[in-house]
Structures are given as structure tokens and as C-alpha cells.
Specification:
Layout: H1 2-29, E1 37-44, E2 55-58, E3 61-71, E4 78-85, E5 95-100, E6 107-112, E7 124-126, E8 128-130, H2 135-148
Parallel strand pairs: 1-7, 2-6, 5-8
Antiparallel strand pairs: 1-4, 2-3, 3-4, 5-6
């Protein structure tokens, strides 16, 4: 009975070690690691489904992360604070939108770099924004139009 107890303990320890190695390798191999960089912000009327920790991407490649969402008490706009990789300096006329990662995927901030020679400084603001399109509203309108006829 004593030998069985030692074997079970050793086997349990091996299982725990394998689980820890798996979790660490999955974390390192994924894109959920935070990106260090400089802060930027953008203002939107609607950010439905966007949350802190979501990606900031250019051309589908993660270049940063959403850090915080807040409401401006004067304008009631949503202020999205994000971090963008230090090696990417964005033109001040860059266009930013919130889009979804497929039909069932989460939301992310999509940046389309502009052509201006003037670059955004840390803590700068992206002014060319487009609000999120809520899929449920679009489908609801389409169903309503189809049933009207």
C-alpha cells in the first residue's frame, strides 16, 4: 500500500509538470502576450464588443493591444487607449476602425496607415475613426426588409 501511494504521488507530480509546460508553451506561442510600446488613443461613438486586451492590428498582424476603454463625460464618446509597438511610427492621418475577427470572432482595432509625413507622438490621438458595425443590427434590418415585401 505504501509503494502504491509513492507511485501515485510521483505520477501526479509528472502530470502537473506536463500541464505547466503545456500552458507555458501555449502562452508563448500565442498572440495573447502583451505588446510593449507607446500609448495612443482614439474616440468612437460605439465600440460594441471591444474590451481591454483585444488586439490592435495592421494588415491582420498584431502590433499592439487595447489597454483601456473609458467614456468622455463631456461628449459621451468612448475613448480607446491602446499600446502600439515602438518600432512602428504611425502617420497622423492613419485611419482606425473596429472590426470583428470573422463571424464568431472577437473584435479588434484595425489601423490603416495614412500617407502624412507627420508621425504620431506617444500619447497622440488617431482622429480618423469609424465605429463598429453591429452584426445583429444589420441582420435585423435585413430580416425586417425581407418580411416587409
Amino acid at each position: 500500500m505504501k509503494g502504491r501511494s509513492v507511485v501515485e504521488t510521483v505520477l501526479g507530480a509528472v502530470v502537473l509538470i506536463v500541464a505547466v509546460v503545456f500552458v507555458v508553451s501555449a502562452y508563448k506561442g500565442s498572440d495573447i502576450q502583451p505588446v510593449s510600446g507607446y500609448p495612443l488613443s482614439a474616440r468612437f461613438n460605439s465600440v460594441d464588443g471591444l474590451a481591454a486586451g483585444n488586439d490592435v492590428r495592421i494588415g491582420g498582424v498584431k502590433i499592439g493591444s487595447v489597454e483601456d476603454l473609458a467614456i468622455d463625460p463631456q461628449t459621451y464618446a468612448v475613448v480607446v487607449k491602446m499600446t502600439v509597438a515602438d518600432n512602428l511610427k504611425l502617420p497622423e492621418d492613419s485611419f482606425v476602425s473596429i472590426t470583428s475577427d470573422g463571424l464568431l470572432g472577437g473584435k479588434y482595432v484595425r489601423i490603416e496607415p495614412g500617407h502624412s509625413q507627420k508621425l504620431l507622438e506617444p500619447n497622440g490621438q488617431l482622429n480618423k475613426t469609424r465605429d463598429v458595425v453591429v452584426l445583429e443590427q444589420v441582420l435585423g434590418r435585413a430580416i425586417f426588409l425581407l418580411t416587409e415585401q
